[in-house]
User: Fold these one by one.
Assistant:
Number 1:
Amino acid sequence: GEPAKRVANPRTVQEAKERGNLALASGQHDEACAMYSIGISLDLKNHVLYSNRSAAHAHMRRFAKAKDNAAECVELCPDWWKGYVRLGQAVEMVDGAAAAFDVYMRGLRVSPGNPKLEGKLSDVYRKSLGGRTELEQSPLSSSALKVVVEHVQCMLALLRSVALRDWDTIAAGGPLLATLFPVTAAASAAYSQNVGVGAGEEEVVIERSDFELLQPRALFLRSVDAALECMLIYFGMESSFVFDPTAGGKRLVYRFASPTEARDRAGRT
């Protein structure tokens, strides 16, 4: 029989995108890459085509190329939250969960409260912890285990409140802040002695050994930093450290600005 006629290349960006999407949906990933590449040659600034080509490369486990294309997508359109999802997925495969966590945090600054980004961030955090059974079999105390498991959700709740400029929720968020910033018994006692008051009723106290076990957990520390950054940047939190000479630890003392000052500051960010 006669040889099959070669289908002409797309002549428009939209045609290239549509043919690429059809190929991607049918599992023809190389063909999808080719179509998206033609579209990009016609419009070098089309961030969606870079995102789609990233997906095609990821399907073929070409994660470095997937990362490069997603990074270009985010560079071209830094306000598009889907680009951060695509980039985070590729970065996790190339550079690990901690690097992906940072990407999703960047995305949440662009799209606060976005459920897709929050879900991705929670996923990489949970993966970094290991399974629940593994955690329960670890030397962590029950108090520390509760902190670790609940920490990222508390951090996300804080981010949502920051995005909404919800000062009242933050100011009343004793349990939330206690989980985000646990203290050692020695540091709590040092603070009480220094300022002449007892420890807060909602304070979460964990052992020095728990802190030592938490230090290698990079994403736990990143979520602490993210929470602290929110408090400092958006709500004018003043902080000071009380050092525990026996544990070498430190207790963060958070003291809010006045509600009026905090609302004013939040309104200017």
Number 2:
Amino acid sequence: VDKGPVSGVAVTTAAAPALVDDEAPPPEGNGGISGPVGAIVFLAKSIIVMVLKTVFFTGNFKFQLDGDRKGTIRSACFLLTFTIVHVMGNFVGMIKGPLEANGEGYFFDRIAWTGGLGLVQDFPFSVVEEYLALGLLLHVSVALKRSWDISINYCLYTGRWNMLLSGLTILFFLTMHLADIRFSSEMKYTMLRPPKHFVAWPGLLEGRVFYETDESVPLVRVRDLYTREVELFKDLGTSLLYTACIVVFWLHMLIGWKKVVPADAMQIPKDHVKAVTGLGWIAATAIVSMYLSVVWYTYVADPVQVVHVP
């Protein structure tokens, strides 16, 4: 069965310029470090390099947006790195209870001034959120450009639309999630004793990271993210919808990672490609498992009652 472009479109696409994506080919062999250790070393090195070059060193922003593959690869590595940190915070916060969950949220709220470089009082977004937004915008825009240039003329059954359709589903999910949590009009507030230096260093061995128990630390009004998550995930329909979207996210990561690892931009030695692909799939599965655990633990567990303030 011919799984090429839809019949009749070759003439219209033949003149399109070829996309020049990659850099020098990855090294042959094992790169000088063999076995699982080599796979881990080169994976870590590639992720660090990709994260450091996320937005401003991709080559996509000229006088027009192009489809250079580095834009999707580097932004994907950055977004995955943030996702790992985010899901671990969510997972620990929900298991540990409202103080930890709300303390984590306030950790980001108290650095909101960085978004305006200290020039605007009460700036709504921190520099972390701004950079995340840039990374997401880069990833989505370049992915859409590449899908239009490469996959748009193929039929659905060829599988060439898998990343586009799953990506659009994730974009819908992110929009819904931001509306449910970050920009919710139903957010309640409570009081918390935040660490003076952002993290409760003496409490780390106790598993206490984002709040203090010392009553000499003044109370601060913070968003009650814990209660908001309970309100969301106690609803079966919402939990099922989140579950479906998270599973699509998992498939998107599995398919995308298999495409990314052999890319020239990653510079993974060829002997390590299979192992690095497997490591990425393990990480993706762990991420999704923690996200699903947050949803369904919240659904079945008895919530902790939180005292609210105006």
Number 3:
Amino acid sequence: MDVEDTGTSIKREEPVGDQPAVPPTDRAPESDKAPPDPKAEEIKEVSKEAAIADQEHEKNASDAESKSEPQGSAVGSAKEAELEAALKLQKRARNEAFLTAGCGYTKKKSRLLSAFWGTMWKELERAGWKKIDGTGDKEGSMRFFPPVPKDKNFDDVAKEGRRGKDYYDRIVDVIGRVKRGRNNDEKRAFELFHKVYDTEEKRKPRLTALGKRRRKSPSSAASTGSGSEDEPIVSLRRKQPPMTMDLSWKSG
């Protein structure tokens, strides 16, 4: 069967028997396909291998990070522990400095503290004084309690006592309280402390005249007729009388 349309003829096959008609197709036969490009295949293989390598690299990196996390946490915890210990020592040093404030410096301080702990505090403990050491943030501090009256409980005084009356938190305050001598025990404690402290003061070396020599100028040596430069210094200063202040204006 031929169909003519605008000068173009398309030949279609009629179905034979029960077979359906085969539609026309523009596909080329299998034998007419181009052979595969070896370069394209090689590029595909290379890209596939690169993707696998990237996956393995990411996996190894994640494993390394998971292994390094415990080490990093251990280092961080060690630094935190060091910082906490440094802060603790700093607080303790500050509390100890407050405890010994007013006791002087260097050798004088060591002599006073030695006399206090060696004599005065021993006598005060025999008389019923008590001491509480600070803990936690107050480590290095101390509180000294005089004997508590019979009508009071020591635990209550330790919790609610007033500073400067029921307890003292500096050594110089304890010495000042004992110096006033409210009873015979405190008087005895101060006498022993004063005796030991004065003995330690007398033992310390004192500065003496070293016999320094004065160097004379050539003119002064010629005028005296002596060229010696070994003459000792002689001080002609006189002791000045103590100054007195007129306080008569206070009495009007």
